[in-house]
Amino acid sequence: MEHNSTFPIKQNELDMLRDEATSYIKSIQWEQGQRAKNKDKDAKDESILLYLSRAKGNGGTDVTSVSKTILELKKRLLPESIAIPIHLNQTLYAVQEGITLGIWIKDSFYDSSGLSSLSENRSALDNSGKREYESKMQTSTAFMLFAMSYKILHDLKTVASDDLSVMKNKFAGIPEVSLMSPLKGISCALFYYDKYLGHPEIIKTDKDVIDFTVVYFEALIAEIQMRKSSLEYTETIGDRTYKLENSEFAVAGWDNVFQGTAKSVEFNKIQFEQIVGNRDAKHFARRLTERMLSYDFEAKKNPFQELGGFMPVFMGYGIPGTGKSMLIAAIATRLKEHSDNLDIPFLFHPMPDTLISTFQGGSAEKMVDWMKPLGDPSKLIFAPIDDAENNLQERTAQGVSAGVKEVIGVFLRYTEGAYAVNYGNSSIGLFTNLPEMLDKAVISRVQGRFKIDGARTEHDFLDQDHLWWRKLDSTMPDFVNMQGPNDYTYLQDQGLAKNMGEIFNVSDKPTEERVLDAYDKIEKQFKSTDHLFYANLYKEIQKIFPFFSSRDVRNIQSAVSLRLTDFDLEQDWFENPESYFKKDYETKFNMLQELMRGNMKGLDFSEIRRQEVVRYLDNVATIADTDFKRKVDSRINQLNIETEAREQFGNRD
User: Fold this and answer.
1) What pLDDT does 115 receive?
2) Strand 380-385 and strand 250-252: pairing?
3) For strand 240-244 and strand 250-252, is the pairing parallel, antiparallel, or unpaired?
């Protein structure tokens, strides 16, 4: 959805609405619907819903006062205190400001959608006019409640507890949401908010008031998101952004940046040393973490981006069982430990498994919700997509669902193009056993790639076994009655490499036949130290693999840049963050340039370029080939099964 125009929300206009907002906090009236009253029959939490449904003893309307309830909470929780405690005060203020903003948004929708004039001529409306009036009233109410909740979350999210799971478990949902009219919408929402606040089980401390408020208004947004597909006349909502003056806050259609960003997903802590083999992958992961940590929150950019060593999208691929999930956890562990140490907010944001939806447009919407937080410059974000071939598979393959196509469309739009903002603070990692099944356009977005190949050497296999039997050894010392190697200390090969050069057993030439033929052909005409060598090699490769494009050439260039920035950050910088991480952008950039110059002295540009080209082209060929080979293998397999079946069938007679 394009947001073409931005409209300011002016503070002086809000000032005029604040009295109305305060009056709602002081008192509203709401009569519960029959269904809400009967909700307690199948409730997950009898006591709370029963309490909500009996909120008014004998039916009829009930006057509710949020401000009165908060004062009562103050008496109950902090009888000693004279002033209203800070958390209660913050909450009351946030709810008031949220309502004020909601009213402004509702008024704006009234004007932009033509609801104002329908309202004025209400008595003269015919049936279709009445229908339009009612329909627009519902939409304006929904948008008002959405904006109100969104503003409350914006103000309280940062002060609420990180982990809201306990509060979410106590919360039994919102019994009813009214969209009949703005007044009814606000009254109904505040009525249940107030009833929860008054329930002694929900609020035990003054901090609970903030936590509960966040949980409640998150739930209200979720309820509205569920209903928005049935709303009409939403055109003037989707195409504009309302920005609050002198503030970061903006309402852009129904977009909710808090969705999914609230909390880092839990993961198992794993150190790189516990992963056997995978030298390339571990080295890459270590570089990625050092580069992300260099991001500058003030300048909102990363010096490594300027040096050409940052990868917004990368890919790890390898056969099953080589440690993809462990690697994801190890990258997250390393980023989290360093972030905690440097006092930097970190978000571990894996793609959920439930992304592909059966509804038309549902997958795109979920994908946008997942990709949105990656544009948040206020934290470091690691966003792995495990088994990427499930959600990003080749669109042209037979039987690919519409959902997959939607997801890929969103992925491409957010990784390059108008939507793609990368400040150098977030990185998406595709992890897959089947890179050849990934969509070609998705693969071409990948700027760094590495193999996850598991144990490869005698020492790797020794270490893999050692990690298993050493547990037995520690519980029963003499039980493992076997001889260890004489000339190897366990795990000594599993440390991190110094640089890429250490890892490559660089073959001088491509290993893949067609690439090798092309390489030899061009080498007869040019030396590999000539620029023309590469120009002609690329042209030749394009004849063999028509999908090879200038995007691939850019990827090769970024691979070379990665090698030029392939140096360790000083150990001292991690121990004393002031010496590098806490410095300003310019200083960090200059310090890195120094390191880069020192690193380049030992490198030969034309040789690195040659190595990276060979590596990339082999990679392209392997991916293209594997797809073909797999099809051939499965066909051969099918034929073998049929032949065997015929023979066995013949033998029965």
Assistant:
1) 92
2) unpaired
3) antiparallel
CB 160 within 8 A of CB 211: yes
Model pTM? 0.59
DSSP character string of 346-389 = EEE-PPPTT---SSTTHHHHHHHHHHGGGG-TTSEEEEEETTTT
* Count of positions (residues) in the chain: 653
The two beta strands, 346-348 and 380-385, are parallel
Are the C-beta atoms of 574 and 341 separated by less than 8 Å? yes
Instruction: Report DSSP letters for 463-488, one per residue.
Output: HHHHHHHHHHHHHSTTTS--PPPSS-
Q: Where are the alpha helices (DSSP H) in 114-205?
A: 115-120, 127-156, 165-170, 182-197
Neighbours of 4 (CB within 10 A): 8
Residue 133, pLDDT above cutoff 90: yes
- Transcribe 429-467 into DSSP letters: EEEES-GGGB-HHHHHT--EEEE-----SHHHHHHHHHH
Instruction: State residue 211's pLDDT score.
Output: 93
**What residues contact 113, with CB distance under 8 A and at least 6 apart?**
136, 139, 140, 233, 236
SS3 for 11? helix
The Cα–Cα gap between 14 and 18 comes to 6
Using CA atoms, how far apart are residues 276 and 461, in angstroms rounded to an integer?
A: 8
Cα–Cα distance, 616 to 215 (Å, whole number): 48
Judge contact between 563 and 287, C-beta under 8 A. no
DSSP state of 252: E
Q: CB atoms < 10 A from the CB of 15, how many? A: 10
pLDDT, position 608:
86
Residue 192's Cβ-side half-sphere holds a number of Cα atoms within 13 Å equal to 27
Specify the residue for token string 């800070």: 86
Go through 355-385 and write b for each residue having 16 or more CB atoms within 10 A of its CB, e for each that does not. Answer: bbbeeeebbbbbbbbbbbbbbbbebbbbbbb
Contacts of 293 (CB under 8 A, 6+ apart): 335, 338, 339, 342, 344, 380, 581
Q: Between 402-415 and 362-371, two packed helices, what is the crossing angle to 10 degrees?
A: 30
How far, in Å, are 82, 359, 456 from residue 331 at the CA level? 49, 34, 21
Q: DSSP states of 131-146 as a string?
A: HHHHHHHHHHHHHHHH
Task: Calculate what percentage of the chain has a pLDDT beyond 90.
Answer: 30
Nearest to 287 by CA among 301, 268, 307: 307
Give the Å distances, CA to CA, from 66 to 58, 62, 71, 196, 215. Answer: 21, 13, 9, 11, 17
